[in-house]
Amino acid sequence: MESRYDMLFIGEAGDASWLGAALGSAKAAVALEVMETRQIECEGVETRVAAAPPDVIVLGPTLPSPLSMARHLRDLSPRSQIVFVLPPERVERFRASLPFVSNLGAAWTVSNDATPDTLRSVLQEAASTSRQRANRVALYDRINLQLASRASTTESQARRSQLALSERYLATLLNQSPDAFLAVDRQGRLVAWNEAARQLFPIHSDDALGTDAVALFPEGCRDEINQLIDMALQGRMVRREVPLRMDAGEAIIHGDISVASVHDNNGEIISVSISARDITERRRVEEELRQLNETLEQRVAQAIAERVQAEDALRQAQKMEAIGQLSGGIAHDFNNMLSVVLGSLDLLSRRIGPAPQARRYVEAAMEGARRAAELTQRLLAFARQQSLKPEPLDANSLLAGMSEMLRRSLGADVRLETVFSGGLWRTCVDRNQLESAILNLAINARDAMPDGGRLTIETQNGFLDDRYAAAHPEVVPGQYVLIAVTDTGEGMPPEVMAKVFDPFFTTKEVGRGTGLGLSQVYGFVKQTGGHVKIYSEVGQGTTVKIYLPRYFSRGDEPIDAPAPAVVPLGEQHEVILVVEDEPAVRQFSVEALVELGYDVLEAHSATAALRLLDAHPEIVLLFTDVVMPDVNGRKLADEAKRRRPELKILFTTGYTRNAIVHNGVLDPGVELIGKPFTIDDLAAKIRKVLDAP
Asked: Model confidence over 625-643: pLDDT tens digits?
């Protein structure tokens, strides 16, 4: 080297030694300064370069983000030449990317395993270029001073400054843009990106330069990205929505990308630009809006149905209240008249003497008056105006004491079974009225089984929650003692069930009933502060559930409703088939399961259910009603198990569990959830069945 050159090496000390050894005899003409990587932060490379710009800046192979540092050093010293020392495997792709790197200009690349002669040649060429550029700039400056006026020189400098400022503005806007930008050469290699692209794509360092740009996208859409790049290289601008990030086969980030060609001054296509915008949130909002629109009609219909149901319940309550007031008024007046009749007959029987025929007439009249008085008492019970004498009692003990009387009343053709719950709470009611209510229900059950059958009386502790109370306005949420009476009789259709508590309504033949039995039960339970619910299927039987408020003696503390635990949700792709012949119940079951995160299919009959089972092997659980027309839930489950032995089964019914099992409808040990059930109850039961081995 004829002239003495200033050279600054930035990197590790070992690489600097290799560089010094490679320079060899040329050291005398080179002023080599070494700044190790660990010194960059504390001493400040910017201060060093700005104070005395070197002819050549050599960046070692271990520097992080060498391109970023090179651009920054170029801004500080435009005449200094940049030489990148790189591992052999990075040289070619790095060299191909350099023309697309903004604010860098010409630069040299050399492998760190190059021969000393090659390295000296590259460094000498870079140093000569730097010195020639410096001399040329100085010469041009002198010529400009001699030939150009000060005004024209100022104008030229202003234009250059304006151009440089515009470039900086453009670079700043590009880096501050929320959209990601990628530059790709004609061979599909990544040559540049902005900060948003670094956040959106897996770009972690400058090592990404020269790599396949398509590899930044999920594997499933890379063919489509390649096609878009090919279309852009043909001069077309294209736009698509594609997944930008995937997890377990599902898109977690959606993108709207635009691909366009970049032309040089001659109009030739030299590269492709890809812009990408994260539209995940927009897609989520659009999907929610679409689902809302799709279910709008269903939600309106559901709201109308709920309103109609509430109005029907209100009308029924108002009707029962009005009938009760009327019945109570009539009963009170009738009692007054009966008092006169019975009193007069009693006096007459004392005065007629031993005349047998006259006494027979009086006794017959008194018997009729007493029966009329009993009817009056039933009317008062329905009107909730009878005099009650509530006392704390154990329902198990009361029913055990009634067993013999009930068996005699039922006759030999009806088998009585009792299932008493251990640890049953006490309730505070009128003992005689409760016995009368149980006897009325038993006699009604007997009359519904003309050919004989089975009557099951069951007790258990119960809790009616806020959701149940919301659907039954007259119910107060809380703890109750439940007494359920189930028969295997003829059952009732819905239109009959709607009237069973009306006074004087009966389905029995003339002369076999007054129509006041269930009315008396209804009135007594309501007057006690309880709730009565009836469930029936034609040809299958009826269950009447009496809920009596729990009694808290002195020193007892009411137990609050259990704190809501974490509701177990469905796991991904768990599909449940709901089979229910009652549309309203089926709709609730489907909506509850969807709310819990399950995929749900529904069927209104066993035939439709079997078709769905054959068509959807992904179904993991069959949730079916026990009592259905044509083919019941038990037979459906047997056939489903024959076809799919691994299928889980969960039954539901309005009957009590013991009544269903004891009557031979289900086998012991099957999974069953009773109606009505809450969403929390259903969630726990479904999870228990699915998680069972």
From this structure: 887 878 888 889 999 999 9
**CATH 3.40.50.2300: which residues of the chain?**
5-166, 575-691
Question: The pTM is what?
Answer: 0.43
Please tell me the CATH superfamily of domain 177-290, with its number.
PAS domain (3.30.450.20)
CA distances from 669 to 487, 650, 657, 666, 688 (A): 22, 11, 11, 9, 14
CATH code of the domain made up of 575-691: 3.40.50.2300
Query: What is the residue type of 488?
Result: T
Domain 5-166 class, CATH top level: alpha beta
Delimit the CATH 3.30.450.20 region(s) of the chain: 177-290
For the chain, the straight-line distance linking the first and the last C-alpha, in angstroms and rounded, comes to: 84
* Cβ neighbours, 10 Å, residue 664: 10
Three-state secondary structure readout of 393-418: ECHHHHHHHHHHHHHHHHCCCEEEEE
- Residue intervals of the chain classified under CATH 3.30.565.10 are 390-549
What pLDDT digit, counting tens, does each position of 70-111 carry?
A: 877 877 777 788 888 888 887 777 776 666 565 666 677 888
Name the fold adopted by 390-549. Heat Shock Protein 90 (3.30.565)
| Distance in angstroms (rounded) separating the CA atoms of residues 211 and 203 | 11
Report the 10 Å Cβ neighbour count for 466.
10
CATH of segment(s) 307-382:
1.10.287
- Widest Cα–Cα separation across the chain: 163
Which residues are within 8 A (CB) of 664 and not within 5 positions of it... i.e. 6 or more apart? none
Which parts of the chain sit beneath pLDDT 50? 1, 42, 136-153, 381-387, 510-511, 557-564, 664
Give the contacts of 589 (CB within 8 A, at least 6 positions apart). 578, 580, 602, 623, 652, 682
Q: In angstroms, rounded to a whole number, what is the distance separating the alpha carbons of residues 250 and 218?
A: 10
pLDDT at 587: 83
Angle, alpha carbons 340-344-348 (nearest 5°): 175
Portion of the chain with pLDDT greater than 90, in percent? 13
